[in-house]
Amino acid sequence: MDVVTIHRFTINPKALSMNRLYGAFDDATHEWSNGVLAQVVREASADLSKDRKWVVLDGPVDTLWIENLNTVLDDNKKLCLASGEIIKLSEEMSIVFEVDDLSVASPATISRVGMVYMEPKQLGWRVIVHSYINTLPLDIQNQWKDRFWELFDLFESTVQFVIGHCKSVITLAAEGYVTNLLRLFDCLLSPVIGKDKHLDKKNRNENANTNTAKSASALAPNDLLIAIECWFVFSLIWSVGANTDSEGRLKLHIHLTNLLATKNFILPMPLPKPGASESKSEHQDLLHPSIYDFVFVPERKQLIWNNFF
Fold first, then answer.
1. Dynein heavy chain AAA 5 extension domain spans which residues (predicted)?
2. Closest C-alpha to 278, from 287, 267, 286
3. For residues 227 and 296, is the Cβ–Cβ distance under 8 A?
């Protein structure tokens, strides 16, 4: 079966004004300025390759921006702009609306689209992790895929504790926590394993489809595993553990200290046992040194946890 390359263009329509979304004439010069959506559709329709193009509109629906797409949703599949330009979507193009609800959408819009309703609990956070692991170089996946899932068992117990016992600054589900964790973890890991985030879309898709991406790790294999474990713990603390107040951080410090002591980490965080040689800061209710006082630093000759307290 032939592999089809997919290009995805994601836009939040509510983050842009109507003029910035579709384009508008300048009041002073009467020159036409392209909108973001109009430019994306124009470029995608001009691409004559057989690659699939998905335009994803990820944001709340309102009666302004979505009504202007009714001509796109018709059988003609044409985007009509105020400049008089008409852009016809190619057969390889699709438009997806990712919305919370359709409470303000008109019957004219609803009758033109197909609906797929999915509850977050039906998907869960593991599909997000699975998708991320598939972006890692193939040799990293083969060596440490099982270890990755063991680390995310630690995430599961931690996020359940935070949701159940700590006051959250921002209400998040497990899917939100794991997304934040992966973003931070990926920022730390990518430069070390040679996972190039700056490839153009074509090369990124080719790597993903052929699954031949190889790592160019700057660390020895055993040191790389240490770095993966330590950066995961650091990312866990500053994603899941960052979304709570001082009292919640104290609870999480005690909980995570006990939890980490049961895990078989090659380079554990050098934390004292709860109640031993800990002191309270004058400005916080948190014990020190705590899980929030350490950062993992891969130096040339050794891998260490630095304590900034």
1. 151-302
2. 287
3. yes
Looking at residue 211, its pLDDT comes to 38
Range list for CATH 3.40.50.300 in the chain: 6-117
Q: How far apart are CA 251 and CA 229, in angstroms?
A: 22
The span from the CA of 41 to the CA of 80, in Å, is: 11
Condensed to tens digits (0 to 9), the pLDDT of residues 203-212 reads 444 444 443 3
C-alpha 187: how far from chain center:
11
- State the average pLDDT over residues 77-93: 90
> Quick one: CATH architecture of 6-117?
3-Layer(aba) Sandwich (3.40)
C-alpha span between 21 and 24 (Å, rounded):
9
**Ranges assigned E (strand) in 181-285:** 279-280
Q: Which two tokens stand for residue 19?
A: 């003029």
What is the architecture of the domain spanning 122-201+210-273+284-305? Answer: Orthogonal Bundle (1.10)
82 Cα distance to chain centroid: 35
Phi, psi dihedrals of residue 294, rounded to the nearest 5°: -115, 145
Kindly state the average pLDDT of the residues 163-181: 88
User: Can you tell me the distance from the alpha carbon of 243 to that of 279, in angstroms, rounded to the nearest whole number?
Assistant: 23
Nearest to 67 by CA among 118, 102, 42: 102
Cα–Cα separations (whole angstroms), residue 36 to 8, 14, 22, 56, 203? 14, 12, 6, 13, 23
**Rounded Cα–Cα distance for residues 159 and 64 (Å):** 38
Helix (H/G/I), strand (E/B), else coil: 59: coil
Band of residue 183 on the pLDDT scale cut at 50, 70, 90: very high
Element (H, E) at 304: strand 303-307
